[in-house]
Amino acid sequence: MKPLAYIWLAACLLLGSLSAKAQIQTQQIRDDFHVLYGPGGNIGVYTGAEGIFLIDNKFAPLSEEIKQAISQFSTDSINFVINTHWHGDHTGGNENFAAAGAVIVAHEMVYRRLSMDNFLPLYNSRTAPAPTGALPTVTFTEDIRFHSGNETIHVIHVPNAHTDTDSIVYFEEANLIQLGDLLWTDGYPRIDVQNGGGSVDGVIEALQRALALADDETQFISGHGPVPPQGQQVVRNYLMMLRTVRNRVVSMIAAGMNQQQIINARPTADFDADWGGSDPYIDADMFARILYISLAK
Q1: Each residue of 42-53: pLDDT tens digit?
Q2: What angle do CA 164, 16, 185 make, to 5 degrees?
Q3: What is the pTM (predicted TM-score) of this model?
Q4: Residue 114 within a domain
Q5: Per-residue pLDDT for 194 more than 50?
Q6: What are the residue ranges of helices labelled H in 85-220?
Q7: What does the alpha-carbon distance between residue 117 and residue 123 come to, in Å, rounded to a whole number?
Q8: How far apart are CA 109 and CA 158, in angstroms?
Q9: What's the domain range around 196?
Q10: Coil, helix or strand for 221?
């Protein structure tokens, strides 16, 4: 089992500091929507009638490389940045893009989290308050809509899911939903179940809400990993995995098993081939530990 001393956020910041060696890969999803991959969380780029909407922005050292990647398919200004949640691999570029003229938009809890010192015991990780220039300038409590030409961008808060700051970003005309870290397609998810305010039940409820907005043609954008070509089915499979392992852990807790016994019982075993991934911070043991902490309380 990987030791708890792995410091996930610090490792992400280290990756960000290596931006000179990083490359941002671009994938076109729709005529007016691209996804940018690379160190940190995935970025959605919508090129609309009112300029560019950026969904998340990775780490601060990557901002210029991100702008360069965008310039290959659009010369429009980046007018809005929407944060799906507060983690630094999704909000690290806030200050840079705000300084360049973008309006930073996020749930009110993103503002609060970025404004404070945060300690996540499960990862032995501490983050200092962000500078004022990195804080969202527009916040909302439940949802907010943007209208750009014939596109409506509906940003919907989902409580206590991956964190206590998460939002779904639904492009109604394009029929596209960016889920942030509610969906990981390259392995088991990180859920901040201690001081981060997240819960596995909240993730399940958030994905159910997203699927209720979708049809067979909806494209889903994940927070980490490749965008799935058959989006709805991948989300359904992911949701089934979460429910199944969650129910197993609930039964084990009810039977009196402690955290280590549940980890040793391998409740994820039949899913490891598909979801085990290669992330050293979220292996099957850590995911079982996360579920135990989420459900035991």
Answers
A1: 999 999 988 999
A2: 55
A3: 0.92
A4: yes
A5: yes
A6: 88-91, 94-99, 108-115, 200-213
A7: 15
A8: 11
A9: 8-230
A10: strand
